[in-house]
Amino acid sequence: MDYGVVANAQSAAKLAVDQFLGLQNVVACGLGHKISRGQQTDELSLIVSVSRKIPAAQLATKDLIPKAFAGLRTDVVETGRIRALAGEDPRMRMRPAQPGVSIGHRDITAGTFGLLVHRGDNVFILSNNHVLADSNAAKLGDPIYQPGSADGGTAADQIASLAEFESLDFGDSPAQCTIVQTLARALNLLARLAGSGHRLAPVLKTSGLNLMDAALGLPDQVSLVKPGILELGTPLGLADPSLGQEVQKMGRTTGLTRGFITQVSVTADVDYAGRTARFTDQVFASPMSSPGDSGSSVLNMARQVVGLVFAGSERITILTPMRRILERFGVELVTEDL
């Protein structure tokens, strides 16, 4: 790029600081390439960063950013509030709590608060079944702690109650057939009379296929939670995962990490403390999580949510496409302050 053009642009940027920095929501001014219809162009422009975009009709005239300034077109970009990156500890108690921090059913160690979602006026915490519902062992209404028990959470730290969950299918479940139950009781009676210590337990064989590990918690009060993901900010929407896509997540254990989508349409066997559940139509990402990160939401670099972490190994992270989870529970993302 021509040196004179750059020098003139830098002069314009310095003038813009005095003109714009200090206006409502403006947090930075600089030079960059203009974004048009979601795509970066080659046009050098004056970038005015704001903590939150507000419709022009809601701004005072003095707070409006002109279409051009000092010979440069302007581009208003929402960056959120800029703060020093000392970082808050995701394992600590936090009120209001936000996605990315420690959370869990009272009887588990700890997982991660994934997102806030809503159905009408009702707001829910989204995470995994094995985080909020103790891998099917919980009952609706059970308490959810923030932080989770492994991070010091107790009854005094209850933040929500279990509202709904998608059951995990391990290939069998307790039989409901009364004929089979009666037969099992009769055979167990004969076994006991014969001096045997063995007993029969009737089970129903199931498909053993799972599409997600997900659950919802109902906050005790809406004021106890907020939608902005720790260190990432409020999600800007929903997108589908795709091969090669760069992604990011904030989790209770490893914090803010980045990776890439490496596989789609994956079927995988996942170990749950000795029991195996088979998941189909899942997504693999590069290693970006560790135990305790389960429940983390995964976002693309445009801050759109693409999935929910629920398992992994030293070499991969497994996530479920978020669109499927939202459709299953009939909920939508919370994308603005409550």
The CATH homologous superfamily of one domain is termed Trypsin-like serine proteases
User: What is the CATH third-level topology name of one domain?
Assistant: Thrombin, subunit H
The N- and C-terminal alpha carbons lie at a distance of 45 Å
Kindly provide the radius of gyration, computed on alpha-carbon positions and rounded to a whole number of angstroms: 25 Å
Number of helices: 4
Could you estimate the helical fraction of the residues in percent? 10-25%
Number of strand elements: 22
- What's the architecture of one domain, going by CATH? Beta Barrel
Give the low-confidence spans: none
Mean pLDDT, rounded to whole units? Answer: 88
CATH class identity of one domain: Mainly Beta
> Which percent range describes the beta-strand content?
35-45%
Lateral arrangement of strands in the main beta sheet: 6-5-9-10-14-8-7-22
Question: Tell me, what's the shape?
Answer: elongated
Largest beta sheet, briefly? 8 strands, antiparallel
Order of helices and strands: HEEEEEEEEHEEEHEEEEEEEEEEHE
